[in-house]
Amino acid sequence: MLQKVAVYFCNVTISTPIRCTLFLPQMTDFESEVDGRADSPTALEVMTLPGTAPVTGESFCLCGRQEELGPVQRSDSGVVSECLCGEEDQDFSWVWDEHCKSSGAFLSCDNRKVSFHSDYSCGTAAIRGTKELTEGQHYWEVKMTSPVYGTDMMVGVGTSEVNLEKFRYNFGSLLGHDEDSWGLSYTGLLQHKGDKVKFSSRFGQGSIIGVHLDMWHGTLTFYKNRQRIGVAATRLPNKKFYPMVCSTAAKSSMKIIRACHTRTSLQYLCCTRLRQMLPICPDVLNTLQLPPGLRLLLQIQLGWEHPEEMSLPSIPVPSPVSDYDSCCSEPEDYQCKRCRWT
Predict the structure, then answer these.
(1) With 146 labelled, which of 60, 114, 287, 299 sits at a CA distance of 20 to 30 A?
(2) b/e map of 45-57 (b: 16 or more CB within 10 Å)?
(3) For a pLDDT cut of 70, what percent of the chain falls above it?
């Protein structure tokens, strides 16, 4: 709610007092969307719009807790720990770039985790990856490590022409507002050139959003919780892209949990063909009964094309070697969508 405070100023040469009305917002832990206006020298209005409720029920695992404004949980031993479900990778081909980010973005966890608007939000913050994605196959996963809410939180790609500070004092969907970027919103909308289309279901805290940039065929594909959503763009221009994310939400955060690259080889093309021939198989590599060494190699290099079969336990199972909870992923109905922009 807004508190209205009337402040009176009186000049000795003016008999009628000049009234200045000041609106003071009550800040909450959720996003404060502030639009400062000064329509006249004697009036200042600051308006605060209410933050939307965080998205729940879309987590990759079972241990996500949307009701708290933070990605941590307390174990039986009393140790506060962050959910590490799905974070098996140890090597990353790129991380977030500390030199190419908005002023409202802050890095941690070896520059793999980005936090936005540490106190309150007055606009849109964004960041891009350190690596220029050119030839070959690029795949990365971004985990939502905080409540997901507000005007927009997006995952996507863009060229070096994208101005990460363009919406610094505005609340908007930065990725995809121009012809140099594509962005998937947490609302399920896909944006490019300012046009938005319904592309997927919503995602929230604990969701893992995967992105596959195929520079050989010029396609962009999105995944949610390691299940394929669909092709977002085809015939991409011959440009150099960067991974990007943006957020308008206060105290929001995202984390890179996978970032890999492979050449467009005969091996890759064969594996892609196998996936097309067996679209409903949850685990193509095990179905084909490949040698263990080859299966492991393909799983590491092409995990997004051939995800391991996933099970869903009734409750989280504690890990015997870690204080962190271990969870299995939640399967989602296989979808195949295609959205073309030329």
Answers:
(1) 299
(2) eeebeebeebbbe
(3) 64
Residues 97 and 43 in one domain: no
Average pLDDT on 9-16 reads 40
In a domain, 146, yes or no: yes
Would you state the structure tokens that stand for residue 87, as one six-digit string?
Answer: 């974070």
Whether 173 and 29 share a structural domain? no
End-to-end alpha-carbon separation of the chain, Å? 46
Residue 35 shares a structural domain with residue 82: no
Q: Residue 55 falls within a domain, yes or no?
A: no
Domain holding 156, by residue range, is 72-264+310-338
DSSP state of 216: T
In the predicted structure, residue 64 carries a pLDDT above the cut 60: no
Q: Based on the number of CB atoms within 10 Å of its own CB, is 12 exposed (0-12), middle (13-18) or buried (19 or more)?
A: exposed
Shared-domain flag, residues 137 and 40 = no
What is residue 293's three-state secondary structure? helix
Number of domains forming the structure of the chain: 2
Does 236 share its domain with 186?
Answer: yes
DSSP string, 217-232: TTEEEEEETTEEEEEE
pLDDT in tens, 292-337: 777 777 776 676 565 554 433 333 333 333 333 333 333 333 333 4
